[in-house]
Amino acid sequence: MIVITGATGNVGRPLTASLVSAGHVVTAVTRGSSASLPGGPGVIAVPADLTDPAAARSLSGSMAGAEALFLLVPGSGAGVDAAALLETAATAGVRRVVLLSSQAVGSRPGAAAYTPMASIEAAVTGSRLEWTILRAAGLATNAFAWAPSVRARQAVFAPYGDVALPAIDPLDIAEVAAAALTGDGHLGQTYVLTGPETTTPRQRTQAIATAIAQHLAFTEVSHDEARERMLQLMPASVADATLAILGHPTPEEAQVSRDAEKVLGRPGRSFADWAQRNAAAFR
Asked: How far apart are CA 124 and CA 87, in angstroms?
């Protein structure tokens, strides 16, 4: 059995489906509805909020008999007692943990927005479990934020329209996670996961336009306007850190990593591939 937290998210959902189709039993931990999880006897849905101080204790029984844990925490990871959760897992007999972290933990050490995730990484590497850390770049699914304006106005509004970054398809993260959870050769590794190419917001807009066979206008908004919108969804420290990456990436953040390709044995999926697969969301 494999325990997956964040099981209904953009990474957790395809990871759950992949593991179940491969014959594994999955305990799917989720804060919200489990309706999007695959049905059948291979999935055990467990409601839990990892930011609840009692989360580790509440999951003790659910982890019994599991061999591995995929740890995906909500938001920035603030409020998650990772040390307690990992100790609960180890006591229950779990041997291996794979953590989904952020590339920025390594590329922006000391940044306040990534301190909670850095602490979770430290808890993982200091635990009694075998571990693998996946530091992901920005997700292609972040473009879902553009869907309302695409549907209503045939337009995308975003900052830093010509800054290129290697966004990664969550399906590739899920496949790397599955390999690390079930295969050999990944213990003690920290992988930086990016897409196979860099693209700008303007280019990503064109990829979506091609996927839905419509003309889309791209309008570059100011830093301040973008920040105002983001503050409706996230704390100021996270908004500022995100905009710093979008507008002024470090050399590491602006380059393609081959770690995913090395694990998967193939190039990663492009943003254009992601747009074609998710075209319905933009129509």
From this structure: 10
pLDDT digits over 133-165, tens only? 999 999 999 999 999 999 999 999 999 999 999
**The two structure tokens encoding residue 231:** 């503050």
Q: Which residues contact 145 (CB under 8 A, 6 or more apart)?
A: none
Distance CA(271)–CA(170), nearest Å, equals: 11
Q: How far is CA 113 from CA 44, 78, 110, 164, 240, in A?
A: 33, 9, 9, 22, 9
Relative to beta strand 217-220, strand 26-30 is: unpaired
Query: Are the CB atoms for 267 and 261 separated by under 8 Å?
Result: yes
Give percent helix, percent strand, percent coil of the chain, each to the nearest 5. 45, 15, 40
Second CATH level (architecture) for the domain 2-139+170-195+255-268:
3-Layer(aba) Sandwich (3.40)
Positions of E strands within the chain: 2-5, 26-30, 43-47, 68-71, 96-102, 130-136, 155-158, 189-193, 217-220
DSSP 122-150: HHHHTSSSEEEEEEE--BGGGGGGGHHHH
* AA letter at 183: G
- Is residue 5 helix, strand or coil? strand
- Which pair of structure tokens corresponds to residue 89? 């897992």
Every domain of the chain and the residues it spans = 2-139+170-195+255-268
At residue 126 the predicted structure's pLDDT band, cuts being 50, 70 and 90, is very high
Residues whose CB falls within 8 Å of the CB of residue 115, separated by 6 or more in sequence, listed in order: none
Query: Which tens digit of pLDDT belongs to each residue from 156-198?
Result: 999 999 999 999 999 999 999 999 999 999 999 999 999 999 9
